[in-house]
Every structure is written in structure tokens, then in C-alpha cells.
Design a protein that fits this description.
The protein is mainly α. The protein has helices at 6-24, 34-41, 45-65, 75-93, 98-127, 132-161, 163-188, 208-236, 241-265, 271-292, 295-324, 329-336, 338-358, 362-372. The chain contains 14 helices and no strands.
């Protein structure tokens, strides 16, 4: 492992991480493509939704395996690989063949996200110095907010160019931006990011990793449920389309705010206690939403639930660094991230299943509150 050359090198590496996370966060803009793909491919909602499910799995796989490449490839070369996967994935999606959309957008672009997230988090841990918690919070917030920035751009391209051309143009633009990030990483002088397999997961206490995995899994179940069903929660109380749109905005705002503050809090002592406190707040908010169900309480609850979820995303890399050291963050956090992968696959389905079973969101909200606890 080789650190960046001085303050200028550190700034270049952090700028590259910000670019990577913002661009790759466009994956969370996926919903704007659902209806156009259904019409173009004459596919069902379940078939189109499978694209994002595959992306979730390949994202998790990328987080898991990328640290094994750290001893072999520099972060700049890894970023070039991310650019290639992103560009090729979008070109395959532009074919308007369902199987190639699944392979390209779901498989390749999802994998690019996992690699990029791992590289960005590990790079900031190595160059951020005593402020690495703050920078960690910033870059993971950039991932969440990248979707908010890219969604309207994609909608404009869809209206002006059509679906296939949108995939081509956006793929080229995203890949080119990632190539700029690769150039910044090369300029930073940041060498290989870690020691790969030799940095084995060896928690300082026998149950440390298991407890952190469970905390991330159950916290993510609650958070992903709130993100995935925000509009539906407001619509279930019949408040009108404007309220439903506000619901998505509130949970996204909370998620971004929580990520910044969660990373910042990781610089202090015992950040896991703050994660626990915020999950407790999220649990109370979810329970209040179930009990009262009026639009203002639902909006406030979504905001607090988003903060709790985002706080965990910002703080966990810092907790891993505290337990295992900064050189092992990519390796250990990649394995820990499988907890998020499980939650991201299960939470939307469980929420929908409980809604169908009961005819309302009350039982799903109670289940999410218990999960947060």
C-alpha cells in the first residue's frame, strides 16, 4: 500500500472518489427506465424489475471481490475497468433485448458499482487523514445524491432521444466521467490500496464481525423498506400525488444527511453507539407511522428513517477502520456489505407481501421498526 503524494495528491484522490460515487449513484435512478423498457420490450413489470435485482447482487459481489484485486491493480486501473464496464453495460442495454439489458445494466453496471464503491471508500480511508470520517460521509452521500441529480437528466434524454439513444449517450457520459476520475487517481500518486488475502478478517473479539453483520442487515431492512415504499406509504393514506412525490424527497434527503453526519460521527469515540441511537430513533418513527398514519407523521417518519439508514452507511466504514485498521477497510467492509445485499433483495418483497396480506402498511411498518431495534 502506498499513500498519495502530499495534500495535492490527497485532494486528487478525494475528488476522484466524489466523481466515482456521484456517477455510479445513477444506478439508483433505475426507476425512470422501468415504464419505457416495459413498452419497448413488451415485458412484464416482474421481468423488468429483475434488472435491478441482478444489479443488487452484482453490486454486492463487486464489493466482496474487489479487495482481492488491490495487490494487483492500482486504483487508477481499477477505475478504468469501472469505466469500461459502465460503457459496455449501457451499450448492451441499448440493444433493446431483455437478456442483454439484464446482462449489461444489471450485470456489468451493477458490478461496476460494487468495484467503484469499494475503491472510493478505501481510497478516502487512506488519504483522508484525521478527517477521513468527514470525507467518508461526503462520498457515500454523493452516491445517494447522484441518483437525484441523474434522474431528471435521464428523463430529459428519454423525452428527446428515446430509450436506446439514452442508454448510449448516458453510458458514454458516465464512462467518460469515470475516466476523468481514473486520471485524478493516477495524478494523486495513490498506490495499490491494500494487501488483499493477507489482510484476513480477524475480529478483535470473536463476535465482532457477526454482530456488525447483523446490525447492518436489520438496519438495512428497515431503511431499504422506507426507500422502496416511500411513495406507496403516502399514497396509502390518499394524500395526492404531490404528497407522494414529497415522500421520496424526504427519505432521500434524510438518507443523504445521515450519510454525511454518520461519517463525521465516526471520527469520535464509540461510533457504534450513535448508530444504535439513530436506529432507535428510526424504530420509534416507523412505529409512529404505523400508529398514526397521517401524512405529516409519515413524512417526518420517512425523514428520520432515512437519516438512520444513511447514518449507518456513513459510520460503518469508520467502525470497520477502528476495529480492523484502515488498510483492511475494503476487505472487511466488502464482506460486511453482503448484509446490505441480503436486505436489499428481501426488504422490498417483504414490505409488498405484508401489504398484500393485510391490505395496508401497518404490519410492514411494525416489522421495519422491530428490524431497526
Amino acid at each position: 500500500m502506498q499513500e498519495a503524494d502530499g495534500k495535492r495528491g490527497g485532494a486528487s484522490a478525494i475528488a476522484a472518489a466524489v466523481l466515482l460515487m456521484t456517477v455510479l449513484g445513477s444506478l439508483y435512478s433505475w426507476s425512470v427506465f422501468i415504464l419505457p423498457l416495459e413498452r419497448a420490450l413488451e415485458a412484464t413489470r416482474a421481468e423488468v424489475s429483475l434488472v435491478f435485482s441482478i444489479a443488487t447482487l452484482t453490486f454486492t459481489a463487486g464489493m466482496l471481490v474487489t479487495p482481492l484485486l488491490y495487490p494487483r491493480l492500482s486504483p487508477a486501473r481499477l477505475a478504468l475497468a469501472i469505466a469500461a464496464l459502465t460503457g459496455l453495460g449501457h451499450l448492451l442495454a441499448a440493444s433493446m433485448v431483455l437478456e442483454l439489458v439484464l446482462l449489461g445494466y444489471g450485470g456489468l453496471f451493477g458490478l461496476a458499482n460494487g468495484i467503484g464503491y469499494s475503491v472510493a471508500v478505501q481510497s478516502v480511508q487512506l488519504v483522508g487523514g484525521y478527517r477521513r470520517g468527514r470525507w467518508t460521509g461526503v462520498i457515500v452521500a454523493c452516491y445517494a445524491l447522484g441518483a437525484a441529480a441523474c434522474a431528471p437528466a435521464f428523463e430529459g434524454l428519454l423525452a428527446g432521444l428515446g430509450l436506446a439513444a439514452t442508454f448510449v449517450v448516458s453510458g458514454f457520459a458516465l464512462a467518460a466521467t469515470i475516466a476523468v476520475a481514473a486520471a485524478l487517481l493516477a495524478r494523486s500518486g495513490l498506490g495499490r490500496l491494500g494487501s488483499g488475502r493477507s489482510a484476513s478478517v480477524g475480529p478483535p473479539q470473536p463476535r465482532s464481525f457477526t454482530l456488525l453483520w447483523l446490525a447492518m442487515a436489520f438496519g438495512s431492512l428497515a431503511g431499504v423498506f422506507a426507500l422502496g415504499h416511500a411513495a406507496g406509504l403516502l399514497a396509502s393514506s390518499d394524500p395526492g400525488a404531490a404528497w407522494a412525490s414529497a415522500a421520496v424527497g424526504m427519505v432521500t434527503l434524510g438518507n443523504g444527511l445521515g450519510r454525511v453526519l454518520g461519517g463525521w460521527s465516526g471520527e469520535g469515540s464509540a461510533p457504534q453507539r450513535r448508530v444504535a441511537l439513530l436506529q432507535g430513533v428510526a424504530a420509534l418513527a416507523l412505529a409512529a407511522m404505523a400508529a398514526l398514519g397521517v401524512p405529516t407523521i409519515l413524512l417526518l417518519g420517512l425523514l428520520l428513517s432515512g437519516v438512520g439508514y444513511g447514518w449507518m452507511a456513513g459510520a460503518f466504514p469508520m467502525i470497520v477502520a477502528r476495529y480492523w485498521g484502515i488498510e483492511r477497510v475494503g476487505l472487511v467492509y466488502g464482506r460486511l456489505f453482503t448484509a446490505w445485499g441480503c436486505a436489499a433483495v428481501l426488504a422490498p418483497w417483504i414490505g409488498g407481501w405484508l401489504f398484500d396480506l393485510s391490505g395496508g402498511y401497518g404490519p410492514a411498518l411494525i416489522a421495519a421498526a422491530l428490524s431497526a431495534l
